Amino acid sequence: MVKVTMDMVRKLRDMTGAGVMDCKKALEEAEGDFEKAVEILRKKGAAKAAKKAGRATGEGIITSYVHFNGKIGVLLELNCETDFVARTNEFKELAYNLAKQVAAMAPRWVSKEDVPQEVIEKEKEIYREQLKDSGKPEHVIEKIIEGKLNKFYEDNCLLEQEYIFEEGKKVKDLITEAIAKIGENIRVSRFVRMEVGEEE
Fold first, then answer.
1. SS3 of 50, please?
2. Sign (positive/negative) of CA torsion 129, 134, 138, 139?
3. How does DSSP classify residue 162?
4. Contacts for 9 with CB less than 8 Å, ≥ 6 apart
5. Which has the closest alpha carbon to 145: 132, 160, 161, 156?
6. Alpha-carbon distance 187 to 81, whole Å?
7. Coil/strand/helix, residue 188
8. Is the pLDDT of residue 165 over 60?
């Protein structure tokens, strides 16, 4: 068995932001393999976040971001469980980065659960019309429609979008990591994005 040193624990802690004991346990479990240890911590973090997901989020902040050209502005409300966390720089930075995400990627809804059913039906209708003369069997068409709908969610729902500051990571993954790190449930409850010359 690999002997886990304090330096190794420190290095893993710097990489992940996880607690000392969690880092030590993960390194022991991974037998000193840092990649494996990070994976173990991520899984534990996701499990921790899932446990906290049901908890009430009555505190939080409203943050604003105005693009340097003054033509795009965003107001975003990010909620957590306690006022203490709402005042931390980490939480404020997360809210600000999410507001930047909204400015850059112009999502229409927070999550796919927020998309009205009639919008989903309309999208499906459009996709079905596009595939009408494809000659593909019905079960294949249904699979293609499902794929197109997922792409629609990725384009239009904040939590499903790829995070602009880190390739391959979705916004919902970023929030899950923050929940695991901060130790409280975190939720984007709403946002407003305004662009000069754009009508509501």
1. helix
2. negative
3. B
4. 20, 23, 24, 27
5. 132
6. 10
7. strand
8. yes
In tens, the pLDDT along 142-154 reads: 899 999 999 999 9
DSSP 56-116: ---EEEEEEEE-TTSSEEEEEEEEES-HHHHTSHHHHHHHHHHHHHHHHH--SBSSGGGS-
Helix (H, G, I), strand (E, B) or coil at 194: strand
Q: For the chain, how big is the Rg over CA atoms in Å?
A: 21
Is the entire prediction scored with pTM above 0.85?
no
d(C-alpha 178, C-alpha 159), whole Å: 14
Q: Report the residue count for the chain.
A: 200
Q: Are 6 and 16 in contact (CB under 8 A)?
A: no
Which domains are delineated in the chain? 6-52 (1.10.8.10), 59-111+157-195 (3.30.479.20), 116-155 (no CATH)
CB 101 within 8 A of CB 158: yes
What phi and psi values does residue 111 have, to the nearest 5 degrees? -135, 170
Give me the chain's average pLDDT, please.
Answer: 86
